Amino acid sequence: MISFVAIGTLWREPRLRDTDGVLLPRPVAALLDSRSLRAVARALAAVLTVWTLVALVLGPDSARNPVPHVVYVWLWVGLAFSSMLLGPVWRVINPVRALHAGLLRLARVSPDLAALPYRWGLWPAALGLGTFTWVELVAENNTSLGFLQLLVGGFFAVSLLGSAVFGRTWFDHADPFEAWSRLLGLLSPLGRRHDGRWVLRTPLHGVNGLRGQRGLVPTVAVMLGGTAYDGFSANLSWSTFVQTSPVSSSLLKTATLLTFFGLVAVTIWLASVVSVRLSGEPFARSFTFVSDIAPSLIPIAGGYVVAHYWSLWVYQGQYAWRLLTDPLGTGADLLGTAGLVPNDALIQPTLVATIQAVSIVVGHLLGVLAAHERAITVLDRRAAVVGQVPLMVVMILYTLGGLTILFAP
Known about the structure:
The protein has 19 helices and three strands. By secondary structure, it is mainly alpha-helical. It is globular and about 70 Å long.
């Protein structure tokens, strides 16, 4: 609340411009734009993909198989952390996008080939992210080889079918991992200025550059709600309730996960309705305003990701190398990492607790700033400060809820 009062008093005009940022040295910018760097990144991603598929098809159905770590740690969590650091990296290294482009080149047809126009915005991405979140947090036997074969095979099939029908636009809007990487990548300190030059910028500039679009609200709701549920599901009281409830644990967990998704979407929409009415705007304006304001939830989602997945990424991300060295489970040491012992220096309890608390609070502050900037940009400035009060209240509730979930016994 103190932050809101200070921001409302001192930040009365829009301040974030697409001309902002500290220009990177030309050699660094040239490296980031170089085809060689992108080619190397794609090649490494292709090698890892093939390596993982070999383990998926021919590897053992046991804890020695590296596929669960690649899917749930490197792909899901590692992609989030790397995107928040470097930007939307999955667009560059997405192996299915590369496969689609390669097939089109072999067929000697235009890369823009599409049978139908694409019109669903981010809705398929929201559905895909929600499904993967359910798989990770609720589905039983989600590390078994048969389950992962079905999961990975289904994803490849849907992606290739979608791109065959709608062209590469499918990856731009409907691919769940590209959406995950692109939205969290807005928090990256690396970005492009209005003239296309690389700059160092604040996370607010990336978030402020995103405009409302169809399906953005449910996508952000899944991102934030899923991470919040992950923290909530680790609560001892909840685990005890699930185990003793006469209701099926899968059904109970699924219903609760969907409730978390819904709570985020409904609360941000209700806050938008009240904000619009306090600003003197008609009710119908709330439907566009909620999409305008939805990007301000991305910093909060990013803070939740860091808070809940830091230990998993830092420790299990290292352990994955130990498993990858023997993809077939034969006792081989192809990468020379069979004896790797993960370093636990970055998962000491005090350090982890500090990182968790700071990430949630910083995410909240960035969300408040992003919402304020968007509100005074799209609403009448005389009413913007009063109109955004409901949004600030909701964000404070998100933060308090996140801290409560995180540190609950």
